[in-house]
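User: For documentation purposes, I need each entry recorded in a consistent format: the amino acid sequence on its own, followed directly by the corresponding structure tokens. There are two entries in this batch. Please keep commentary to a minimum and don't merge the entries.

Assistant: Recorded as requested. Entry 1:
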Amino acid sequence: MLDTQKYISIDLIDPNPWQTRKGEDPAHIEELAHSIRNNGLAQVPAGRQMDDRYQLAFGHNRFAAFRLLDTLGIEGYHDFPLNLREMTDEQMAIAAYEENEKRKDLNPVERAYAVQKMLTDFSWTQQQVAEKLRIDRSTVSNLVRMLRMPEDVLKVIEEGMLPVRSAMALLPYYELTPLEASAVEAKYSGECEEFIELARSGVVNSDVIREKISKFLGFLHPEVPKLDLQDESQPIAEPDSITAAKEESRTEETEKPEDDSIHPGSETESIGGSEIPEEDKAFKVNTAYPLSDAKTAPPGDAKPAIAAEKPAEPEPVNNDILFTITWKAGGGVFIGLRKPGEVPVMRFRQTLTAEEAPALMGEMGIQ
């Protein structure tokens, strides 16, 4: 359906319900109002009618500029031009997000609230949100997780003082239960509190934060780093019972009498025309060259080498990817990932839902 353009009183126009930008930049609005007054409106915003009122789909800054001009008493700006369309709630939400993304108007926290509102209002999965907004699913998961941070930390992120990467490195600490947080404070006295305050200020890089948080979590759950960390390059130790059985089997093979049908009871036996002295007959069974094949005999009168004991079959290489999810009785979830030839990775989360699991797997490198 084609747009229908109307001039509508600014008193009847409401913002997009899914507009998550918290405020407007007064300097930018003033500059935009000056441009509109001198050059006109370059693009007419879109919206929809809701009973006797109207909602903006996008164009909130232009609407604010009109409102400013009208407040200043300048004639001709009380009615706002609007292209009316038939739009669903989902289309309105996507329009609000895309408008802000194009203009880089949303900070990370506002983006997170926008994504969370879509998940809540439309019962979308994280995968659906990612597809509709054309962003990675891991980005959606991280934005939702970031909202678990305390309000004062989110404020620092909004102000740009704490990079998102550093905030995500801090997140496992804020996902601790009150009991776990108390245990960390008791163990490390003021060290933990001082470090968290320093990290929140944005002066500590994410790698240092991640290392410290790992130390704190290692204290709380010392068994976690030991989760299936066996080096696959080393042979797996056998139980004593298996080792003993193998030794017994070797003993029986050594003591087993020779088969006369294979080795006639002569004083000497020949290999390729060379005789084996009586004192060397012990080598007959385990020679490196079969008695029946003269072509494989060593040259000259050299004694045949003693055959090396047949090596044990090598353990099959495990190329499987091990992904484990462990719910702790005291609260919290540990997620482990081991890939062949790589250092195991461990994550801790306070909670984990079935919808979040695929995104987490992608974040940890499982395609």
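Entry 2:
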Amino acid sequence: MKKILVLVAALALLALSCTAFADGDLLSEIRGRGTLVIATEGNWSPWTYHDENDTLVGLDVEIGTLIAEGLGVTPEFQETDWDSILAGVDSGRFDIACNGVGYTETRAEKYAFSTPYVYTHKVLAVGKDNEDIHTVADLKGRTTANSPSSTYAQLAEEQGATVTYVSTLGETIALLEQGRVDATINAQVSIQDYLNQHPDAGIKVVEVLSGDPVAFPVRKAPETESLVAAVNEILEAARQDGTLAAISLKYFGLDLTQPD
């Protein structure tokens, strides 16, 4: 009987502990389970991709790992399509997204963002033989390839383009080279990285657009505020000691940690 009472008491304590995590803040829950669940695509070089050994690597993988270690937990990367990332953060499936997510005022209405960790420029790219498109103003009535719900797709649609939705940069390039779409608006670092690896690719950049702050989104709620504050402290320390700049240089060949 004594053993049964001890077991019941232990189970009650476990249930109480789980309830405390559910009702408390997300940071306490993360530290309680010992893992930070991170959403990422895994196919968007140099942000997040698989190397020749099929190991998940990239700028966001290194910084995501840095954040997890700073919180005292283990990073748990979960790869998913772009259009599932923010929805998964919103539903609580993921704690945070590390996937080159651009900060926008519209997104900030629904998600809490960390401070920016890099700033990226956008480029307009077209097929190598395209002589009709020179600026985003030329996109009216044209077609582009972009990930759904991305800031790039939104900008293309604002310019009057019809967007073909894709899941990877490779699909985007293939559609451009095949002439099945007219253009794409995309991250300068991603397009440049692709051109560095594929110098004979049948695409070209025709316009460089203004830079965007890139940050880590979490679910917007009172219980996530302490997590965002902790992430910001970790990012600031990494900014001050040069770690962020070193990671940016490693993957982009440029220090993109400053807005200018």
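Summary note for entry 2:
The two ends are 70 Å apart (CA to CA).
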